[in-house]
Amino acid sequence: MVAAISIPQGKLEQLASWHALPTVRICSNTPISERRVEEALDFWRTLGYEFGTVIYNDETDWCYGSTYFGSIVIMPNQTPFDGQTLAQTQRLAYNKLVVGAKIEIRADSYDRPLLLEHELGHALGWPHYNVEGHIMHRALNKSGKNCKGLKKS
């Protein structure tokens, strides 16, 4: 689980990265607008990250099983969350290469500012970073648009 990893205020390092462009799949039962998804993807594009095809209203098995290789799958939470968890990302990596990621979002949290950007950061291989105002801060209310250290090299 991604949430267990947190970096103090030292140097931020990407834990894993994609070798190929990930397909982004938004499951059909996910009540998030295309505009909101594009805003979140554009946040990362401005930092040099690229994505493959974006598939909206996906009704394939990708959205109902546990297989999500080659894709970032965005879906409602399948796992019960505690009262404070708004979303979680499960990232599959092998030898520091991301091979798939699943972002689960709580039903009342789809339109929360910066939440999807933060979770996409985990899908791209970034851990939490305990600097107030940073997009990867573990607490959404202490998060912000600071993206220092995240630019793709």
What can be said about this structure in brief?
Helix 1 links the parallel strand 3 (23-27) and strand 4 (54-58). The chain has helices at residues 34-45, 115-123; strands at residues 6-7, 17-18, 23-27, 54-58, 71-76, 87-94, 97-105, 128-129.
Topology:
Elements: E1 6-7, E2 17-18, E3 23-27, H1 34-45, E4 54-58, E5 71-76, E6 87-94, E7 97-105, H2 115-123, E8 128-129
Parallel strand pairs: 1-8, 2-7, 3-4, 3-5, 5-7
Antiparallel strand pairs: 6-7
What does this entry look like structurally?
This protein is an alpha/beta fold. Helix content is 14%, strand content 25%. The chain has two helices and eight strands. Strands 2, 3, 4, 5, 6 and 7 form a six-stranded mixed beta sheet that branches. Strands 1-8 form a two-stranded parallel ribbon. Strand 3, helix 1 and strand 4 form a beta-alpha-beta unit. Helix 1 packs across helix 2.
